[in-house]
Design brief:
- This protein has 256 residues and is α/β, with parallel strands linked by helices.
- It has one domain: Rossmann fold (3-Layer(aba) Sandwich).
- Helix content is 42%, strand content 17%.
- It has an eight-stranded mixed β-sheet with strand order 3-4-2-5-1-6-7-8, with helices on both faces.
- Helix 1 crosses helix 12.
- Bound molecules: adenosine-5'-diphosphate and magnesium ion (MG).
């Protein structure tokens, strides 16, 4: 049975997509069957997995509107070892169209039911908002992985997300929990980052993953080649950290 996770943080540019595609590639490397669901109309996880978002015949949009199944709309990443339910700008329309429909927040959950036996992990790359799309992700998931930069306002932004997760847990999805906080783009030379990192550990204890993802330019270069950093430059510090993180995730969930 697949374990389903949202990679979520309502801030943009904090490393959600980088975490999604590199965790997916890392888990694939240790033999796990992985599906990435791109739930962001920007389609960065799609492109970053080597799939052209401008040439999609079917996408997650068609799945949410029940015009296609996951099996029909998914594609294999050419080089990264996992499947992708891709997205492009069309998905922005779903936000409006879903409002009128029944079970609007449970569409993704329903669509993934038939895929549970085909994957070990489903990773949902959420958009930078607490929108209907993110809500679909949170309703479908067992847990949330929160990538965050250790900056001054990090903890403040976190409380909105934690409250949303609590509400979804109470009203819509009793299974939902925070799996962990992942420190990304970390630069140990910056004292403030060390301080915020310590604060995080004080507040959230073992909900903070042991693995830390360093700031590493190879991770930022990889998407323009349609590859996760883990595949683009396996020896780079960022790639090594993400493979380590994949192992930590698998272990934490008893699926090593
Ligand atoms: P989000 O999906 O939250 O908007 P992204 O994963 O797209 O964030 O990351 C934002 C930008 O930061 C991208 O240009 C990405 O390549 C870069 N980036 C992400 N993680 C790292 C890292 N560890 N080191 C260097 N650059 C990174
Ligand atoms: Mg993104």
């Amino acid at each position: 049975m697949a374990r389903i996770f949202c990679i979520a943080n309502q801030k943009g540019g904090v490393g959600k997509t980088t975490t999604t595609v590199n965790l997916a590639a890392g888990l694939s490397q240790i033999g796990k069957r992985v599906l990435v669901v791109d739930l962001d109309p920007q389609g960065n996880a799609t492109m970053g997995s080597g799939i052209d978002k401008r040439a999609l015949e079917l996408s997650v949009y068609d799945v949410l509107l029940e015009n296609a199944s996951v099996a029909e709309a998914r594609q294999r990443s050419p080089k990264a070892g996992y499947d992708v339910l891709p997205a492009n700008r069309e998905l922005a329309g779903a936000e409006v169209e879903l409002v009128e429909l029944e079970r609007r927040d449970k569409r993704l959950k329903a669509a993934l039911v038939t895929e549970a036996a085909n994957y070990d992990f489903v990773l949902i790359d959420c958009p930078p908002s607490l929108s209907m799309l993110t809500l679909n992700g949170l309703c479908a998931a067992h847990g949330v992985v929160v990538p965050m930069q250790c900056e001054y306002f990090a903890l403040e932004g976190l409380s909105d997300l934690v409250n949303t997760i609590k509400q979804v847990h109470a009203n819509l999805n009793p299974e939902l929990e925070i799996i962990g906080l992942l420190r990304v783009m970390f630069d140990p030379r910056i004292t403030l980052q060390q301080q915020v990192s310590e604060q995080l550990k004080t507040h959230f204890g073992d909900k903070v993953f042991n693995t830390v993802i360093p700031r590493n330019v190879r991770l930022a270069e990889a998407p323009s080649y349609g590859l996760p950093g883990v595949v683009f430059d396996p020896a780079s510090k960022g790639a090594v950290a993400f493979v380590e993180f994949a192992k930590e995730m698998a272990q934490r969930l008893g699926r090593a």
